[in-house]
Amino acid sequence: GKTNMFPLIQRCCFHTSFRLQKVTGLRLLLCAKNKTTWSSLGLQLRRDACPLSRPPSLKPAPVYAAQLQAFHTSLPASKKKTPPESEAESQRSEGSLKDAPKPALYLSLAGLVPFVVAPLAMAIHGNYYPEVAFAQVTYGALTASFLGGMRWGFALPEGSSAKPDWLNLANGIVPPVLAWQALLFKDATLGAVMLVMALGIALHYDVALLPPYPRWFQRLRVWGTVVMVLSLLATAALKLVLEAQTLEGTNNWQN
């Protein structure tokens, strides 16, 4: 049985290898006639051989490069903060009075008390007191001088956005000069009107003309100036009204 199987196996292997050699030889002869066909066959053989020679676990370099690039770009993107919905909303949130430091807010509110108390006290008693009106004008002159000097304090430090030039320093002197002029008037009504001008000019410098303060301080300046101006005008109006009532009462008593 072994002697019969060996020739059979030898014949099958010989005929199989001969057929493979014959087919491969015919393909090579046909491909040699055309150079372009030969080059395409070589490329095809390389493509077919590459997946076999490379382990299945390895990936081409461009795939790893793309994965690394996606990894490096995705991490910072996840750490980035989402931008605000609109620039106006961000400015409103940064410019509200809630963002003001507590000492600046409370001291500014306390500084408005003398302005409000003077006309309120005269309105409650129903009489005009020249001493109280003069005290209000004097305090207003000091406040206007402080606001003008604050511009110097903002412009002089190194690294400030406001330069110590003629514009900043000269405009800081204008409110004190007007405040001094307000104290020279014998009539407190004229002094109050002059102080309204001084406070309005100081507010214009701080908000619109010169380099800006923080937005919360600008809002604080606006509301504080409104209260001071209304208090001074209230004192001037009370003087006219109460003096007119007093004069009318005197005339009626004489008649």
Automatic annotation (TrEMBL):
Start and end residues of each stretch annotated as Disordered: 76-99
Basic and acidic residues bias (residue ranges): 89-99
Keyword Transmembrane helix: yes
Residues annotated as transmembrane: 104-126, 132-154, 190-210, 222-242
Keywords: Membrane, Transmembrane, Transmembrane helix
InterPro entries in UniProt: DUF3429
Superkingdom assignment: Eukaryota
Keyword Transmembrane tagged: yes
One Pfam family per UniProt: DUF3429
Name the UniProt record assigns to this protein: TMM69 protein
